[in-house]
User: What shape does this take?
Amino acid sequence: MRDSFHISLSPGATAAAVAALVLLPIALNAVDQSFYIVLATRILIFGLIATSLNLVIGYAGMISFGHAAFVGAGAYTAALLIRGGFDSAWIAWPSGALAGALLALVVGAVSLRTRGVYFIMITLAFAQMVYYVIVSLKILGGDDGLNVPHRPVIGLGVDLRSDAHFYYVVLAIFVLLLAVLRRFLNAGMGRAIQGIRDNETRMEAIGFATYRLKLSCFVAAGAVAGLGGGMIAALNGFVSPSLLQWQQSGLLMVMVILGGAGRFLGGMLGAAVLLGADEILSDYTTHGSLGVGIVLLLVVLVSPQGLSSLVRRQLG
Amino acid sequence: MPLALIVEQLLNGLQLGLMLFLLAAGLTLVFGIMDTINLAHGSLYMIGAYLAATVTEAAGSFLIGILAAVIGTAAIGAALEIALFRSLYRRSHLTQVLATFALILIANELVRIVWGSQPISLNMPASLSGPIEPVAGFRYPAYRLVVIVAGIAVGLLLYVGVTNTRVGMWVRAAASDREMASAMGVRTSRLFTFVFAAGAGLCAVAGALLGPLLAVQVGMGENILILAFVVIVIGGIGSVRGALVGSLLIGIVDTAGRAFLPALFRVLFPPAISSEAGPALASILIYVLMASVLFFRPRGLFPARG
Assistant: This one.
């Protein structure tokens, strides 16, 4: 029987995709469109964040409506550290990840006592709490947010002030984390998590500690989101509460579903399509989100499995 | 602290609570009966406010504005139910969240295209714009008092309608067990359209009444929508009684928290802490309340299903 849980990426296609991503800045420079390197970096970061949400929604079956809070926690942590003089990326970014993980631990520990709709709503409520705390704290800049005066320092001969260098660092982290995620999902714990998604009672009866497994998964996703937030803070040069507005959580969910929940590259695909479409549409119209809304509605109604299943259907 | 200030804040809290109830009642019924999450409920509130503003301006009468907004929004609600929501009832919650999130994006852009991005004004009737003095020495804005009275009237009407009429009985039956109600002869599909349209109409009432107090602008529905969700989750999804208790609780806790917590913190803590912590805690109080209710009663205060 074909093992439906196993994620197999063909080595050839993977190598080709990674090679294309490596060559992208060179190609953009060659056609004098280096402006798009920053967009590509943003897509990779959001692809990573959406992938972490996909782990929660698509693989573990927990519909979390507050993922932006973890992104925000990481972004503000990194911003505060860089402003405070800790300008090594080796400190700022892992601290962002840690902040995301700790927040996810607290939110998850309480939220996972509830089920279904209530879980959706309580994660949303926690995210709103974090949002309002940040907006009302003057040391965090309130509504205006905080400037990040300069990009962090990473050493190893890499200069993050260069957009291309920044892109390659993000790409390296992205590829590394996706490789780790694939191993994790193919290993016992990853399968157990998908088992819980499909039938939690049964997994509990077999003897799995379902609460602890779900919580670990939630915390890991929070850590990746926090890391992503730290990278966004460095890339944009500022952080603002809009990073953790509830609409942002909604957009992250949209990326996951658009790309394909429970598909390995779903989050990445969704981020690329959404951010790419937004960029293209914004050149032509200020009403771009009308198109995004209509497309999203159609995708949800016509192809609930997301775009990757459409692609798959076309291929065979 | 003077008594007049406390009474004033309690009245403000009551007013917010009643308006939340108008939103939450429709939301909780759609949620409870059709098992459907409707994030776009706030968009109906926004559309109601815009319609009220436009018609009030054209007709020169606030009352006609409200009536037109209610009828127009209910019609839009019914059309949406027939065209879209019907096919969402049997889908997963995730699908519903995304489809209605898409509706928010679409509604916001459409409103921007029709009315522009700038807030528009909805003026209260001139006769109600001043304060009145119900008790000697206590002044309160007349319009806010009217909103409270109107909120109580609509709320009572709804409550009596749900508890004492035949349609209300069908609604309660469907909320507690949809299949069984359908088997006993309730024509659920017609009932669903009616409930959805009624919920939209209630949104319009809230939007029109709150329009003169808050800005009529794109995105106005989203903040209040989250409050309405907090209300129905605290009250127990599907329960109108829960929505009523939850609304009043949230309205009063939120208003009182913002009014009194910073002052309380100034007394209790040194200025360095109180100037930051007071407002921060006040703005998250209702979410703390919601998280604690769910922690102890994961299905809300008045669960509709046994």
Notes: The mean pLDDT of chain A is 85. Strands of chain A lie at 146-147, 238-239. Residues 34-245 of chain A form one domain. The longest strand of chain A covers residues 146-147.
